[in-house]
Design brief:
With 326 residues, the protein is an alpha+beta fold. 38% of the residues lie in helices and 23% in strands. α7 packs across α12 (317-325).
Length: 326
Amino acid sequence: MVVSLLSIVLTAGVWKAIPELDALGKLYCVDGSLFPVIVSMLWADYTSQHRALRLHMCFELNRMLPVHFLVEAGNSNEKKALLKMLEAGVTYIADRGYLSFPLLAAIVAAQAFFVFRAKANLVYTRVERWPVELPATVQHIFQHVTDQRVRLTNAKGRPIYRLVSFQVGQEVYLILTNRLDLTTFQVILLYAYRWQVELIFRFLKRSLNGLHLLSQSHDGATIHFYALVITALLQLRLKQHCVEVYEATLQKMDTAPQPDTAQPTTIAGLMIDPQQLAGARGNTFLATVGEKLQRYWKIGKHWLVTLRNVLARPFDFQIVLALGRL
């Protein structure tokens, strides 16, 4: 029943999308996060001395929404969890812990796509060198950038994929993908946006107190996370509606200064502010690419406290404006 309720919330809600990401197809960031549990939860195996469950999640970048998840034992395999959630036509973005040759083959067989970070010991031979496409605004951030098609010599069938490599600070990144239509910069930025799935885990754990489970059974824990995710989605929809009403009211009043409701300037088809990226350096890059998302998609503690304080009052226009300006 809760599964159907989540589907209804996702399909019936009017969710604000990011056009620049929508233009690149359906994009899912995937990851898993551990939730510590009490020792009596025998199904939640993790180590010989600790119990934990692992929440496996697909987070849609297009609308910044959690759309799929699985609740399994802490020692469950993230790659197998992703196989259970595969959809045709989706581009899956993941860190190097997900990289395995059988998983890549399964994604291709499912007519889906991947943008995965590869490990430094990846063995390959170059098949074709591609021109590097980086805007001048960001060239100071990345060093030693290459874009090429490579053959994985240790994989079954020796498949050919695309490999984008670059260095930020002292860290070297190898990004493996089967998306041949993206520019070099788009591949890099899609991997950078993977950090959004880490933020939703933090929100569920800290802001919504998701660490305090309401049930010890597997089914009960699953219902617990469905309730958390549905709550997060409803809060997000409320915030987006309040922001839209607040900005529309300011425009009608023709007051100054007005909030910037226009779409930000784009670079290489993604929602990035060129002036901010021009000042970005190494470790600040991930924070910079997510800054434009805060107006419509970030639900902070202050906003949640304000919402809590007005729940007992009539939800009138003044409350909508108050929640929209935060």
